[in-house]
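re: that complex we talked abt at group meeting.

here r the seqs, copy pasted straight from the sheet so there may be weird spacing, ignore it
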Amino acid sequence: MTIHKAPAEDTKPAYNYAYLDEQTKRMIRRALLKAVAVPGYQVPFGSREMPLARGWGTGGIQVTAAIIGPADTLKVIDQGADDTTNAVSIRKFFERTADARTSEVTDEATIIQTRHRIPEAPLKSGQIMVYQVPTPEPLRRLEPREAETRKMHAWAEYGLMQVKLYEDIARYGEITKTYDYPVMVNGRYVMAPSPIPKFDNPKMHMSPALQLFGAGREKRIYALPPYTSVRSLDFEDHPFRIQSWTEPCGLCGAADSYLDEVVIDDRGGRMFVCSDSHYCETRRAEGHRGTMLGDAALSGLVEETTP
Amino acid sequence: MSVQDMIAPGFSDPVFQSQAAFRALLAALSEPGTLQRVTVAIAPPEGLATATATALLTLADYETPVWLPEALRNGPAGAWLRFHCGAALVDEPASAAFAVIDGAAGTPALSAFNPGNDQFPDRSTTVFVQCAALEGGAETTLSGPGIPGTRKVAPQGLRAGFWAEVRENGALYPLGVDLVLCHGDGMLGLPRTTRIEEAR
Amino acid sequence: MYVAVKGGEAAINATHDLVAEARRGDTAVPEISVAQIREQQALACARVMNEGSLYDRDLAALALKQSQGDVIEAAFLMRAYRTTLPRFGSSEPVDTAAMAIRRRVSATYKDLPGGQVLGPTYDYTHRLFDFALMDTDAAVKPAHDGLKAPLDATMPRVPDILGAEGLMEAELPPEGDPRPFDLTRDPVSFPAGRDVRLQSMARGDEGFLLGLGYSVQRGFGGSHPFVGEVRVGEVSVEFVPEELGFAVDLGDVTLTECQMVNQFQGSKEVPPQFTRGYGLVFGHAERKAMSMSLVDRALKAREFGEAANYPAQQDEFVLYHADNVEAAGFVEHLKLPHYVDFQGELELIRRIRKEREERLARQNEELPEAAE
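got the structure back, here u go
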């Protein structure tokens, strides 16, 4: 169902295309242009009250609403999957308010709005990633006051962050941050990549896609232009490394993807499956088989279709 | 004659035309040096290129002071901007959110505009530099975010010393103005992150 | 082939049906009307109007009906609607001195021009159930011959009385009297101006402000206030359209205003004066207005050169955390799936534990068997 105003139909009250009024879109667009001009710097913006809850993607939704047009194809994922409830809800929002053409196919999408993952399939030039960001300030847990963190960014004073990471190493032998792992952008700003697993951090570096970040509750927008240096913070003697698993995806056999753990019984039984549902599905369609497909069918994770 | 007769029309379909124009601007500034075109057919007022006029319609409003060269400010372009955008036209380059300059004119210097401040580098001026052509001139090599390796551009009709000014602007990073070169319906972005390679 | 079982969309559709069913409750009981909520739950409506930042009694009642009486959910509905409304401009400042008084009490004077007007208040009710209200047809009959004398036409505000004597901190508009900041349109930066602080508190969570105000009283902020005055009543809202150039009356709104008289301050230049804490809210909402005025005074710490050691004195703390729609959104987002991040934590903790066990095992092997 469409609820936005069609051109030349202005008799009934209705919402503007993509929900936001044009004045708001202009304000967000101006912020986005400054964000790409200063990669990794958090631009304050007049975040609007949205009909979805704060903390549930209102920053990403406002960014998407400000950029989307009739020529776009939108993909929405949460935890890497198109079918998680909040992804479904946000996709529906744009279908209703912007007649958005949507797709689950990563390669077809011109805009990919995401919470917590970057797709496994390589992104390409012309695509735009829109990240939903809960806490845009990478220094917030070290210094709760905005007035202070703003100065730290202004003067590139990131010593506190280095100390915190080194304390981890002293205590546990490694940096214990597994997601929202801080990165240095274009050699200048420390940036929160949003709570993606650190597994995805390397995908941000020199990506051909434009990456936009929206934090609605905290009222910040930031960006990574394509082909921008994004380095995960580390130390020479403790280089950055990503997660790895001892077994491949139980459904498609992929050994190169980020895996979710599915508990299959109460006796310690578990299987690991791709978090990127489209990637997994594509591989199965290509004939790849994981060792636990049968079990997954039994537990209702997948179903067998007649070809 | 009514005001509408004197002032050229703006967008015929503001929602979709501004969306399309914004995407061209976003591409221009996120991939510096790539030639982007605004596909919207509008009749710009005298003194503004189609690309400049479209960009201002897309981005400017009562919240964004605009600086225009004096001749434009007091002519149809000034009236057009006030009417369509509700933008305040300011005398002082440093108080402008957006500015339009003639790339061939000697003044104002890029350094006359607001470079932002260290806590809010986003508060800098975006300058639309109108020039004679975006292609066919002497080549300049760019590098930086948005550019895989290097990218060559060859705009024409820019004042002597323009690239040196751009280089000085880049040295202010993360402060600095952001530039969009405009000619006809074409745009070419030069944000403050773009480095100008020394000519050999 | 095997395809993933997708239930997200079906589940969302089903939950919409279930919430409609839960909202209606037992259909043998008559459905409540918006008008009933508006008239009979007016204090809840006032809270929804305040925290939803929109003065519309009917919509506040509808929001409460739609949200099953969940006040924060109702405020959320109001705000999501409000954000889409076109803006015509700002009204003229309302004149609370000219308020049509329903209630007005002062703790600083035994009597004053206009007198104490108790009006409707729960203050002196004994909190004993009125079981007669269990019946729906209990007609309201005044049990007492109330004072029906008309109120005085002039009801000067207590701080104005003090101000006339020079004893109250004057509050003048900032230079040029600019339009107040609108925190629903522009991002806030710190330190925040008083217009931003008052605006944030007016729409802030009543419970949060109550707790902060209480903390100030208990010593976390050291305020020693007197209620100069609390007044409740109707004021008219006027607007000057550009094309007319003169003020037009848009109608009346009910407001509650509280002005606290606080510990005096003085300096070389200024003789000692009492300082002010201010609260102004929609509808009859005294607790909210009083809490707001306590915190307003606490937030003036910087202006008066006082140490800002406690939460109620720190603008960033108060403003970022007073908004219950934002707070509820972020607290409740924790129930969204986080299994990708949790998997990262699982991988890490298992690996660290395994490495630890291996290390301990190695150390045990290397130990000489001295104990035996």
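couple things i noticed - Chain C has twelve helices and five strands. Residues 13-82 of chain C form one domain.
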